[in-house]
Amino acid sequence: NLIIILNLEKKMKSVSITALKTAIKNDSCIIDVRENFEYNMGHVPTAKNIPLSELEARFQEITPGSYLICQSGHRSMTACDYLASQHIEVINVIGGTSAWDLPLEQ
To answer: What pTM was estimated for this model as a whole?
Structure first.
């Protein structure tokens, strides 16, 4: 059950947790933009940590088409907006880690 929402105002692509699970199975790049201490407490499988606070210095590490996740979806949306301004199109995960219903990695 794939849900894709395109925010026409901001031209931001967003997906559900269900779509993220499929992306993980397909070896897609997942970026967790929460702070290091939050990431270390538990993150979705395969996610790489690039905190929002470090994004401006590290945005070159993010490839187009990556899935961005945070705790609830707000910080990842902010990160998506910033990356769009750098001409890097990424995908926001709606609901963030809070919506993840499987075990988290540590």
So the answer is: 0.89
